[in-house]
Amino acid sequence: MKISRTLLAMAIAVGLSACGGETAPPPSAEAVVTPPAKSADQLVAEVNAAISEQAPQVAAADWLASTYINSESATVSASANERWLTMLNGFIEEAAKFDGQKLEPETARALALLKISSANPAPRDPAKLAELTQLRTRLEGAYGAGKYCKDADDPASCRDIGQLSEVLAKNRDYAAQLEAWEGWHTVAPPMRADYQRFAALINEGAKEIGFKDAGELWRSGYDMSPAEVVVEADRLWGQVRPLYEQLHCYTRGKLETRYGEQGSVNGKLPAHLMGNLWQQDWANLWDLLEPYPGEGSLDVSTALQAQRDALYRTELSKLSGAPGPAEIVQAGVQADLAQAKAMTKLAEGFYTGLGMPALPDHFYSESLLIKPRDRDVVCHASAWPMDTSGRVRIKMCITPTEEDLTTIYHELGHIYYYLAYKDGPPIFQNGAHDGFHEAIGDTIVLSMTPTYLASIGLVDDPKVSEHATVNEQMRMALSKVAFMPFGLLIDRWRWGVFDGSIAPENYNQAWWELKAKYQGVAPATARGEDFFDPAAKYHVPGNTPYTRYFFSHILQFQFYKALCDASGHTGPLHTCNFAGNAEAGRRYWAMLEKGSKQPWQQTMKELTGGESMDASAVLEYFAPLQGWLQEQNQGKACGF
């Protein structure tokens, strides 16, 4: 899953602390609250003005730190965030003076959003606040610059995350995959001490504004109590777990067929054999898991690579005489950039086809679309609002693959959310809750049916058959269903770190216990406390809350069903393609415009008719596959 850089992620946290107008927990009993010197409305106006003024500076500094990784950009980013967090702490202290007062609903909501602040609540102590911002920048930079070097004395032996991921995606040699997986995880142990200190500091910051720990603060962004968030996530997981267990059982059987006894670890899936560094997406195992080889083939990656190769030949044809190595390399760079822009234009076309506006010209001139050859960048895809008035861009190292194409459609979901709510007050420029933000683009991805892919020239006209349907469902499930338990476990680990139930000396043990419990995944070799495997996933050193991604995988199917209904679709849900439907686009844009100015339950009801998250649409969508999997798994000992 890919992270967005929402404007208010740098300024104001996502969501509201509790349902029914309740606000964030009050300050601790020891706090001395003096009467407010200004009205609540005046404070909200001041906060909105500060966000508008400071957000461009913080966004620009963070952009530099992610796209020019060096000590200077790290210093600039840390300083900008330190200035903002100092100001934010002051606003939060002022907001506490209005606790218990009768306020207008919009004002009360604005102050509640303010008080749950960011995912990185900073201690009031200036020295600790400065330390926190330095640690945050250092951790993110360490991840972005991470490489595995087989020979420490030979730079040529070093491989970055993209190169190691390619091994897992394409190489079926057991030892090569194990080396690549273990190799990437070597970048994490040096972050352990910094992360432990970072977690302690944000815990301290959370406690100073009235929360038990940072985890409780994170769970306060869903218009329900923090305890209810845990119960809700467990309920939703209970709905989809039977489907996941069937997919897990089928996959384990195929791995055991390919690798023998090495194809499972005590009934669990070997971490390094899943085609993905974190086992969150199994799509790269298609060559092993395709139910009916060649039936309804949807080889999007080959089509995209052919487009890139054609662009490369065009660039080479522009060269005169006998081009030198540098000219040939530059022709490849130009072809890569042209292909990345073309893929982004395809995605933009889906959104404009729904009636949404074209992306602003600066989007293409200011976005980072391919990996630079001259410097380290954080290639993890992200969408960025650079101010409060609609300056937007994405950061992504695009390659001509199906995975990257769907990622672009996802990231543009964030971009169009930013554009839809940009005219609202800055404090409400965010998703209804953070899961909404992640679900927008993925709802569009669900509409990328074989019929749609054929309409944009990436596959042949689809042949409808039962076998083709199962193949297409499997293709989608390897990304969507396989992800769901991973969407839960990262925050379950961090909530334990924050509340003290996972001690630093047990970081890695607890990580693998959760991996086993939720994903049914295990390492092929021992992973003791000399490792720090959680930090091999960007969102841990980047300190990005992750439950949003689990919720988004429920919400996107609910949104999809609602938009399919709005478009007049009839027939099985998984066949719906609402591309080009004006009514679906109108209803979707109306939801996006609301931002976070009202409880998400209300926003949800306006689109779907219901006020709760529910996985029934997931099960309806995958009904053909679930039935097929149950037949394939008959007689097997499934579960983990």
Task: Tell me what the structure shows.
By secondary structure, the protein is an all-alpha fold. Helix content is 56%, strand content 3%. The strands form three sheets. Strands 1-2 form a two-stranded antiparallel ribbon. A hairpin with an 8-residue loop joins strand 1 (147-149) and strand 2. The longest helix has 34 residues, at 226-259.
In total, the number of strands is: 6
What is the mean predicted local confidence, pLDDT?
92
Main structural class? mainly alpha
Radius of gyration: 24 Å
Sheet with the most strands, sense and barrel status: 2 strands, antiparallel
Tally the helices.
23
The end-to-end span amounts to: 24 Å
Proportion in β-strands = under 5%
Could you spell the SSE succession in H and E letters? HHHHEEHHHHHEHHHHEEHHHHHEHHHHH
Q: Summarize the amount of helix as a percent range.
A: 55-70%
Uncertain runs: 1-32
Topology:
Blueprint: H1 40-67, H2 71-96, H3 105-115, H4 126-144, E1 147-149, E2 158-160, H5 161-170, H6 174-184, H7 192-208, H8 214-218, H9 226-259, E3 269-270, H10 286-289, H11 300-317, H12 325-353, H13 361-366, E4 382-385, E5 392-395, H14 402-420, H15 434-446, H16 450-455, H17 466-499, H18 507-519, E6 521-522, H19 547-567, H20 582-593, H21 600-608, H22 616-621, H23 623-632
Parallel strand pairs: 3-6
Antiparallel strand pairs: 1-2, 4-5
Structural descriptors:
mainly alpha, 6 strands, 640 residues
